C-alpha cells in the first residue's frame, strides 16, 4: 500500500486535456497528461538530481534513501530517468513505449537503466520507478536520478533535458574539479524556468582541502547567481559516498536533508505551480495537434498526402544536409589538427631537451636513494618536470583551441541557419513550428573534457620483476636503468598530454554537431507523425462525406475554444499561487 502526500484535488483541466489528446489520436500526449494528473492527485512531487556525467548523482540518491538502490559505476550508468518513490516494501516497475507499465525485480533495474545493459536505450524504456520504504519519501517526495549531461552518450543528455518539464524541484550536483560547467549553467537556467526550487550540492568534497572547497563553493555561487540573475541558496559541500558507506552525516548533509523536508512541508504550493505550468505546456501541444488536424481536413486529401511526402523528403534533406555539414566540419578539423600538430612538434623539439636536463639535475641530487625508492623518486621527478614544462604550453593551447572552436562553431551555425531558413520558408505547412534560428553561443557549446590546470599522470607502478631487479642491481647500473625508465616516462607524459588538446577539440565539435542534428531531427519526426495521424483521420472523414468533415471541423473548433479557456483560467489562478 503506497502512502500518498497531500494531493491536489482540482484536476479537471488536466482530465479534460487528456480526453482532448486522446480525441486527437495522440496516445503519447494523452498518457503524459494522465501521468501528471495521477501524480498530482497523489501529492507526489519530483526532486530531480541533475548535473554533469560522473558528479555522483546516483550515489547521492542512494545515500538519501540509505541503501544502494540505483546502480553506480565508473562509466556512464544511468540511461533513462529513474524515479525513487515511497512504498511499504521494495518493488520496481518499468514503462516502455510499446506496453505501458510492467513490474520488474528491483535487482533487475540495472538491466533497464544502465548504458551497458541498455545501450542507446534499445529497450525503448521511458521511465523506471522504484518503490522503497523511506521516511524521507513518506509524504510525497520522489527523488529522480537523471542521466548525466556531457557524457559520451548524447542520447543520455537528451533524456535529461526531455525530463526537465516534469521537475518540481532540483538538486544540481556539481564538483570542484572540474568546476561547474557551461552545460550545467544552461541546465540550471532551464530548470529555473520550470521551478523556483534549486538546491546546489558540491559533491565529493572530502577529496579537497578546506581552501579548495571554499574556493569551489564561492565560484559556484558566483557563476550561478550571474547566470540565473538571482541569488542562489548557499552551496552545500557533501560527500555522498561517505554518507552512504560510512553513515557520515556532517552539518552540510544534515542541512541538505532539512532542505528536502522543507520542500515537503511546502509541497502544496509547489504542486499548484506544477499543475499550472503543466496545463499550459500540454494545452499548447494539444493546440498544435488541432491545427494540424484542421489543416488536413481543409486541404484535399491529395494535397495532404503531398504535404506528408514533402515532410518526409524534408526529413531526408535534413539528414543529407547534416552529412554535408559534417564533411565540411571534418575538413575544418583536419586543417586545425595539422596546425596544432605542427605546433606540438615544435614544442616538443624546443622543450624536451630542457626537460631532460632538468630531470638529470633532480636525479643527480638523489644519489643516496636505491632500490624501489630510487625508482619512485625518479618517476615523481619526471612528473614534476613534465608539469613545469607542459602545463604552461597546454594553457596557451587551450586559449587557441577555444578560439578555433568558436570560429568553427560560428561557421557551422551560419550554414545550418541558412538551410533552416530555406526549409521554413519552403511553403510546407507546419514547418513554421520548427525551432528558431540557432544561436552560436547556445547551439555549439559542447563542454571541454580537458582539465587544463593539471597534467595527466600515467601509471608508473613497477612490476614485481622490476622491483626485484632494482634490489639486485649494483648502484651504478641501477641508477642508469632508473634514468632510462624516468626518461621514457617523461617522453610518455609529454607525448600523451600534448595530444590532448586535439582530442578534446575533436570530441567537442562532434558532440555539438550531434546535438544540433538530433534537435532538428526530433522536431521534424514529431511533426511528421502528427501530420500522418491527421491525414489518416481526414481520409476517414472525407470518405464519409462533407457533413462528417464539417462536423469534425466544428468539433475541433470547440476543442480549441475549450483549451483557450483552460489556459486563460490557468493563467488567472496562477497569480494566486504563493511564490
Characterization of this structure:
With 579 residues, the protein is an alpha/beta fold. It folds into 3 domains: 7-43 and 272-297 and 545-579, no CATH class; 44-265, Rossmann fold (3-Layer(aba) Sandwich), CATH 3.40.50.300; 305-528. Helices cover 63% and strands 8% of the residues. It has 17 helices and 9 strands. It has helices spanning 12-23, 27-41, 57-65, 110-113, 154-163, 182-192, 210-228, 240-245, 251-265, 267-298, 301-364, 371-424, 440-443, 464-472, 475-498, 500-544, 546-574; strands at 45-51, 82-86, 91-96, 100-104, 125-132, 141-145, 169-174, 198-202, 236-237. The chain has a 9-stranded mixed sheet with strand order 4-3-5-2-6-1-7-8-9, with helices on both faces. α12 packs parallel to α15 (475-498). The chain starts with 11 loop residues before the first helix and ends in a 5-residue tail after the last helix.
Mean pLDDT: 77
Q: In percent terms, what proportion of residues is strand?
A: 5-15%
Structural class: alpha/beta
The N- and C-terminal alpha carbons lie at a distance of: 33 Å
Number of DSSP helical runs: 17
Strand line-up in the sheet with most strands: 4-3-5-2-6-1-7-8-9
How large is the radius of gyration?
A: 29 Å
Q: Report the helical percentage.
A: 55-70%
SSE topology string: HHEHEEEHEEHEHEHEHHHHHHHHHH
- Show unreliable segments: 150-157, 449-453, 575-579
Largest sheet geometry? 9 strands, mixed
Oligomer status: single chain
Amino acid at each position: 500500500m503506497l502512502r500518498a502526500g497531500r494531493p491536489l484535488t482540482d484536476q479537471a483541466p488536466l482530465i479534460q486535456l487528456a480526453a482532448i489528446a486522446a480525441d486527437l489520436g495522440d496516445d503519447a500526449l494523452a498518457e503524459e497528461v494522465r501521468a501528471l494528473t495521477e501524480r498530482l492527485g497523489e501529492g507526489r512531487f519530483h526532486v530531480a538530481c541533475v548535473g554533469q556525467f560522473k558528479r555522483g548523482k546516483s550515489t547521492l540518491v542512494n545515500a538519501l534513501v540509505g541503501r544502494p538502490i540505483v546502480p553506480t559505476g565508473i562509466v556512464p550508468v544511468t540511461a533513462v530517468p529513474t524515479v525513487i518513490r515511497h512504498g511499504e516494501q521494495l518493488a520496481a516497475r518499468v514503462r516502455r513505449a510499446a506496453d505501458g507499465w510492467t513490474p520488474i525485480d528491483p535487482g533487475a533495474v540495472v538491466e533497464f537503466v544502465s548504458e551497458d545493459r541498455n545501450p542507446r536505450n534499445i529497450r525503448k524504456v521511458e521511465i523506471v520507478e522504484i518503490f522503497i520504504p523511506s521516511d524521507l519519501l513518506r509524504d510525497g517526495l520522489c527523488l529522480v536520478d537523471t542521466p548525466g549531461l556531457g557524457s559520451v552518450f548524447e542520447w543520455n543528455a537528451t533524456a535529461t533535458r526531455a525530463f526537465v518539464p516534469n521537475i518540481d524541484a532540483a538538486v544540481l550536483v556539481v564538483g570542484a574539479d572540474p568546476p561547474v560547467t557551461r552545460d550545467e549553467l544552461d541546465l540550471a537556467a532551464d530548470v529555473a524556468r520550470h521551478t523556483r526550487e534549486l538546491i546546489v550540492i558540491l559533491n565529493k568534497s572530502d577529496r579537497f582541502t578546506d581552501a579548495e572547497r571554499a574556493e569551489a563553493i564561492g565560484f559556484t555561487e558566483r557563476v550561478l547567481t550571474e547566470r540565473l540573475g538571482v541569488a542562489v541558496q548557499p552551496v552545500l559541500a557533501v560527500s555522498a559516498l561517505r554518507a552512504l558507506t560510512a553513515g557520515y552525516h556532517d552539518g552540510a548533509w544534515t542541512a541538505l536533508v532539512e532542505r528536502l523536508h522543507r520542500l515537503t512541508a511546502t509541497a502544496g504550493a509547489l504542486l499548484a505551480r506544477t499543475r499550472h505550468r503543466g496545463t499550459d505546456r500540454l494545452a499548447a501541444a494539444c493546440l498544435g495537434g488541432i491545427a494540424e488536424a484542421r489543416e488536413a481536413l481543409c486541404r484535399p486529401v491529395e494535397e495532404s498526402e503531398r504535404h506528408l511526402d514533402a515532410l518526409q523528403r524534408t526529413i531526408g534533406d535534413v539528414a543529407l544536409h547534416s552529412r554535408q555539414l559534417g564533411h565540411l566540419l571534418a575538413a575544418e578539423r583536419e586543417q586545425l589538427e595539422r596546425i596544432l600538430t605542427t605546433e606540438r612538434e615544435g614544442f616538443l623539439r624546443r622543450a624536451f631537451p630542457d626537460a631532460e636536463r632538468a630531470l638529470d639535475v633532480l636525479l643527480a641530487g638523489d644519489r643516496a636513494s636505491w632500490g624501489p625508492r630510487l625508482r619512485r623518486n625518479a618517476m615523481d621527478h619526471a612528473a614534476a618536470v613534465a608539469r613545469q614544462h607542459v602545463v604552461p604550453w597546454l594553457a596557451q593551447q587551450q586559449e587557441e583551441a577555444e578560439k578555433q572552436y568558436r570560429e568553427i562553431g560560428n561557421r557551422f551555425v551560419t550554414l545550418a541557419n541558412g538551410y533552416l531558413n530555406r526549409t521554413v520558408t519552403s511553403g510546407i505547412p507546419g514547418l513554421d513550428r520548427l525551432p528558431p534560428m540557432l544561436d552560436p553561443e547556445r547551439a555549439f557549446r559542447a563542454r571541454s573534457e580537458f582539465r587544463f590546470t593539471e597534467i595527466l599522470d600515467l601509471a608508473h607502478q613497477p612490476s614485481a620483476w622490476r622491483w626485484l631487479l632494482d634490489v639486485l642491481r649494483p648502484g651504478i647500473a641501477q641508477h642508469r636503468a632508473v634514468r632510462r625508465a624516468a626518461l621514457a616516462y617523461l617522453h610518455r607524459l609529454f607525448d600523451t598530454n600534448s595530444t590532448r588538446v586535439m582530442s578534446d577539440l575533436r570530441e567537442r565539435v562532434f558532440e555539438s554537431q550531434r546535438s544540433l542534428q538530433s534537435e532538428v531531427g526530433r522536431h521534424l519526426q514529431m511533426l511528421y507523425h502528427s501530420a500522418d495521424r491527421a491525414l489518416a483521420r481526414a481520409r476517414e472523414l472525407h470518405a464519409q462525406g462533407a457533413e462528417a468533415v464539417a462536423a469534425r471541423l466544428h468539433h475541433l473548433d470547440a476543442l480549441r475554444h475549450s483549451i483557450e479557456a483552460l489556459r486563460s483560467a490557468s493563467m488567472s489562478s496562477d497569480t494566486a499561487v504563493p511564490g
